[in-house]
Amino acid sequence: MPGSFYGLTTILLSSIGKLHLY
Length: 22
Fold this sequence. Notes:
single chain; 22 residues; mainly alpha; 1 helix; 91% helix
């Protein structure tokens, strides 16, 4: 399960990064 949690965290970080870019 840790892998899935890490994946979700990465997606959240990418979304936040995109929001900061725009």
